[in-house]
Amino acid sequence: MATTSSDVKLDVTPRGPGGGLGVAGWLRWGWRTLTSMRTALVLLFLFAVASIPGSLVPQRGVAPEKVAEHFKNTPELAAWLDRLWFYDVFQSPWFAAIYLLLFLSLIGCVIPRTKVHLEEIRRKPPAIPRNLKRLPHHASFTEETTVDEVAARLRKRRFRVETGPDWVSAEKGYLRETGNLFFHISLLGLLVAVGFGSLYGYRGNVLLMEGSGFANTVAAYDRYIPGTMVSAESLTPFSFHLEDFNATYVIEGERRGQALDFAAKLKVTDRPGSPERDVTLKVNEPLDVDGTMTYLLGNGYAPTFKITDGKGQVAFDAPVPCLVVDSATFTSECAIKVPDAAPTQLGFLTRFLPTSVKLHDGTYTSAFPGAVNPQVEVWAFSGDLGLDSGAPQSVYQLETKGLKPLLMQSKPLNVGDTIELPNGAGSITYTGVKQWITLQTTYDPGRVPALIASVIAVIGLILSLGVRRRRVWVRLAEVKDGNGTVVEVGGLTRTEGGDAAFAGEFDDIVRALGARSAGTAGEKNAHQ
Amino acid sequence: MPTSEVDAGLATLSDQLVLVTVLLYVAAMIGYALELAFAAPRTNQVSGARRKVLAGAGGPSADESAGSEVSATSTKPPASPGWAQRAGTVALVVGWLGWAANLAAVVIRGLAVERWPWANMYEFVVAICFAAVTAFLFMQIRFPVRFLGAFVFVASTIGLGFAVRYLHVQAGPVQPSLNTYWIAIHVSAAILASGLFMLAGVSGILYLIRKDGLSRLPTRTDLERVAHRAILVAFPIWTFAIIAGALWADRAWGRYWGWDPKEVWSFITWIGYAAYLHACTTAGWKGKKATIIQIIAFAALLFNLVGVNIFVGGLHSYADVP
């Protein structure tokens, strides 16, 4: 725990219990060791070191696609890393072990310190030491004053004061330890809030095409990650419809193509039967329906195609969401699978170029992320797509092994263009362009408690690092010839490194007690 | 509606002011270095006049050396030739001029792009150097930390030089995610805390370089005190910066904490400085061990700034490094 020199944690290395202490002795030894400051330091250090792999090895929760890539490139290493939980560091048992031990150590420290602090708050300031001259801060002067007056002046400076027949003892800065305890307790609160949120909250991702809708049910999500205590019925029953998506880009200059603004126009129905409302979803402006938040995460293009098969029937007519390959120009790739085509199934690979330009070598590329001249390049295949084989396939990729190439080179298509496939296998028409957005919906009942705990933590931290604990004692003695009183003042700060700053305050206090400032300084030095 | 308008004239002026800042910082650095180099060497033993003030603040290292060492120079304050002191005074004035140029460069960059001027790594590093110099110059008003001048300005000059040479990007608009008032809250706090941590880091490195005994470098007690004070102020600010970042992430990314690499390393940094504060109150850990912990935490801070931006990536990919 933080920064007072009166640390309750044991500074000494805990000694082993030796022979014959039995179970209770061992337990006491274990608890003492766990709650010692040295162990806390080691655990803090381990906590930091243990999180390093979480930033260097891709994490399932953050970048699942990179984890998959690892498994593909270095399967053996990946298997070992996986066994050691390196792809889920922050969910791993060893990481949990460290922070649970740390929090246990924290509890073992907070409880006794809270007890001590509660006693200290109720206790009166300690009696005056015999020799004030031995304190780090000391001054004396002659002045007509009384114990009551000194006590009143110190109280005015918000000291807690205790008086004796010829002395005053005063202390302030209790808020330091109060803040310190609040800080550490709120860290425990933060842990509880995070845990509560992950048990009772859920997260879901969905890709939505312009002109289509979404209702908040488990089945509607592409990926749904519920906490263990979430039931499917508890999802807030809102729904919305994506009217239109707009991206704005810098048109000219060095930063041409940089995104300026993304805006998705939604019509939202908060609960079944309630009236629709218009909401513009932006990057930093999520949709909030009763604490369930929906965020705009990404966007891309979905060219629409109409595909006729060898028998002349329309086998496919829909938008195809493309994966963005180059985020600077939004060059995108997608796969079209037409299992219903007859006589053989058809598959297409397409490359979408939002602002297509021809290069010197005859190839095409996209020069700008906005859809200024949206063209597509198409490669066509026929044969068994393998969709019934049972092996999982990505919707964005076409496994071309075993397929017969039909069309390997074509000029990029403009909207409205059609290409006939060779051997009467059919035709493909590029009918238009839509945009898609990816959304994340999050319900986390722990976020507000976590915020409250964090705010308390910061306030506690500021108090515990900013306030100084200090004591002042004053002793009054009659001058021998009966003219005035000798006032002797001693001061002490119990805060590490606080002496230099306390010196100024001590001078102020001495002055406030009645020392005529010029004379005091000399006398003060003389006493030291 | 965000704008893509950039005032090219102001942007160029800002770039030039950064160069002026570098030159002034170099001059200040030389001045401070002369003052330090031609001053009398100091021992780690605190002199009689200072001792009473520092008795509680000094770590065990100061107390130990005080017992074992007797030195003629330790009883009087370090004397230096008049011209060396004047060099220090000139350095102070030049340092303030550089500070003003740095401030102007930041403000004018902001005016040129009509947004908060710390949205990419170039702007961020320029702002951190400004924060470090600010922390030093203002600390100097109240506390005797002039001995640190040469080193703070070395660090800031290197930082600015690195920014100009390797990180510079033309002034321009930002991605939609950065276009919010949260950048003023979260990034400003991070800059302020980083500046103070830099001051502490410089002190810590000097502490380790300086052995006990006679040296022209400032005493270990002084260095330790500056570092401790800077971290006391910086730690709550850093905590606030992380929490503000979590609040922003809650608006922008759909969760307040997701173990993104930047988040991981800011967390590691936080743990590191927390360990330092605990070490400072633990017998046997004060002094050298605490300073080593502080330096490790500072290294984590630097890695978060440089390493994560350039090598690791993640959601905080705003560095825009050319």
UniProtKB/TrEMBL annotation, chain A:
* Pfam families, alphabetized: ResB
Superkingdom of source: Bacteria
Q: Give TM segment ranges.
A: 40-57, 94-114, 181-202, 448-467
What's one GO BP annotation on this UniProt entry?
Answer: cytochrome complex assembly
Spell out the InterPro entries in the cross-references. Cyt_c_bgen_Ccs1/CcsB/ResB, ResB-like_domain
Q: Which cellular component, as a GO term, is one annotated location?
A: membrane
Q: What is its main location?
A: membrane
Where found? Membrane
The membrane topology noted for this protein in its Swiss-Prot or TrEMBL record is: Multi-pass membrane protein
The residue ranges of the ResB-like domain are: 37-506
The alphabetized UniProt keywords are:
Cytochrome c-type biogenesis, Membrane, Transmembrane, Transmembrane helix
- Which PANTHER family does the record cross-reference, listed alphabetically? CYTOCHROME C BIOGENESIS PROTEIN CCS1, CHLOROPLASTIC (PTHR31566:SF0)
Q: What is this protein called?
A: Cytochrome c biogenesis protein
Q: Which organism is it from?
A: Sinosporangium album
TrEMBL record, chain B:
Chain segments annotated as transmembrane: 17-40, 90-112, 118-138, 145-168, 180-209, 230-249, 264-285, 292-312
Question: The Cytochrome c assembly protein domain covers which part of the protein?
Answer: 118-316
- Cellular localization per UniProt: Membrane
- Main localization of the protein? membrane
Q: Which GO terms describe its cellular component?
A: plasma membrane
Q: What terms describe the molecular function in GO for this protein?
A: heme binding
Q: Which domain of life is it from?
A: Bacteria
Q: Where is this region: Disordered?
A: 57-83
The protein's topology relative to the membrane is: Multi-pass membrane protein
Output compositional bias ranges, type Polar residues: 68-77
Q: Which GO terms describe its biological process?
A: cytochrome complex assembly
Pfam families, per database record: Cytochrom_C_asm
Report whether Transmembrane shows up as a keyword of the record: yes
What span is annotated as the signal peptide, if there is one?
none
- Keyword annotations for this protein? Cytochrome c-type biogenesis, Membrane, Transmembrane, Transmembrane helix
- The answer to whether the entry has keyword Membrane is yes
Against InterPro entries, the record matches this protein to: Cyt_c_assembly (IPR002541), Cyt_c_biogenesis_CcsA (IPR017562), Cyt_c_biogenesis_CcsA/CcmC (IPR045062)
Q: What is this protein called?
A: Cytochrome c-type biogenesis protein CcsB
The organism named in the record is Sinosporangium album
